[in-house]
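Researcher: First entry.
Model:
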Amino acid sequence: MVLRRACTARQKRLAVELRRLRDAAGLSAIEAAELLGVNRVQISHIESGLAGVSEERLRRLAAHYSSTDEEFVEALVALATDRERGWWEEYRGLLPTPFLDLAELEHHSTYRRDVEFLFIPGLLQTEDYARAAFSSRVPELPHEELELRVRHRMQRKVILGTPARVPYEAVIHEAALRIRVGTRATARAQLTRLLELSEADHVEVRVIPFDLDGFGGTWSPMMLAGGRVPKLDTAVRDAPHGTGFIDSEAQLGVFRTVFRRVKDVSLDPSRSRDFIQRLAKEL
């Protein structure tokens, strides 16, 4: 068994789900190994993401774990047998791994949802806006890495175009629309681009205005990416120490609820467009 030197977020997710299935079945790693006719170390490597698992072995494990959710098992098989090397691989060794993991996650997502309070969501940013945002980072990025990050962010937009057209919803606070990232011209172009993207039938942009009564909401940005089945949804949070990929069902439930509440209090898409147009005219 050849071990990976590093594993992607999707490979880690498969490993986590297999461990959860085993725990739910009340079996030890030794018992699982015996069922497959392998040693405990191999199970440990599979459940840590350091080793892959064949479709045949995965189905045997699922059967031994008494997993009756056929759709979920098929989704795990898809994770296990995916050998695609996407466009993000050209950045491996050049950008931090979470950048690649995010692009891969989005590539396989069935939907994408964002809530932002201080910045325009990355998938909706213009190149100049993204460059200005990355330029404000402390410590300052070397020019080459800054440009790599901008190019990577622009390539991520492929999921909104054809043929992918991944359903996308963004809830953006008025603060993010008003904060001038870069020059006045950059801000105006960004709002114009936001309006253009919101015209697509698979893209929905909503605004939370400052004067909304009683809004507590959440003041931390959040991102949700839909999996092949809801159990494989993923929440993403950015923090000073790095990007976090969240997959526990309890936490995912919280993120889904927060998004629903924030969406419910936001302006509908039509009123949001009018709101953004007014702001653009002020610039």
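Researcher: Second entry.
Model:
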Amino acid sequence: MNVRRLIPSAALAGAVALAATALTACSGAADAAGNKDGKVSVLASFYPMQFIAEEIGGNHVKVDTLTKPGVEPHDLEITPKQTAQLAEADVVLYLRTLQPAVDKAVGQAVAHSGLEHAVDATALTKLEAHGKPGHGEEGHEHADGDEHAGGHSKGDGHDHGEAGEDPHVWLDPTKYAEIATGFGAALEKADPAHAADYRKNTSQLVGKLQALDTEFEDGLRNTATRTFITTHSAFGYLAERYDLDQEGISGVDPEAEPSPARMKDLQALAKKDNVTTVFFEALASDKTAKTLAKDTGLTTDVLDPLEGITDKSQGADYFEVMRSNLKNLQKALGAK
């Protein structure tokens, strides 16, 4: 195992410490009496949070999600039924800035409904801005100096939060492990009777994420090109982690029409950097990707941002889809 790539113990310890602040108005153990089966009710905002909750909670929790399979999480609107779910949940796990409707609903549940354990995943790791914040769909023409520190996350058109922070932290296994560690600690506080099991499950999940990180590091170490083009600029953390250069076509909305100038820019870049593939996601239209590919003689393939699992996904869970992403990246980048 590549020790250099293992998640630093200091970072994991920090995630545990941050779990205390991520718990909003936490005042003692959660009372799961509301569940007839005696399980702790956990409400997750969308799939990556749901997966962590299920893996760590195991048989002691009942996990529901606000974002059903096939629903675009960025555009989620909270229903009255879901508002009631938030008020009744023992623990809520969400990722601030990704879903504004969820952020607002959680805040209201904490203030007015007695929700004691609201865990914000962004407090368990460090969010970063990839690309210049505030640019719209035509804001991708990158000039010198438009690179993130490390220089491999250009062209990300996200504009989340005041600082343009990119919320897609789960696509970096090391950051996802920090969230898992922090949530595990929060769940121990919410349900101390099963703390030992949560601690064991957290350790196992972190270990699997460390192994996945090593697979990506080894699998992408030697490639013919370091640049990939994608319709959905969700892969800034992954690109930075593995020394790649993400070039997004249309920013946060994978189905938005890019400007002619951007398409021309990408055609030139594809030729310059020996790009072979334009990636699209399984849950969105591949129209834009196919248009660019046709104009440049490139192929298309799937790179899944893992915002949800459906029957169209290239895998049944987080790990399977991430390994499919790795395989597709290796092929596109010419891994040796």
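Model: Note on the second entry: The longest helix spans residues 195-219.
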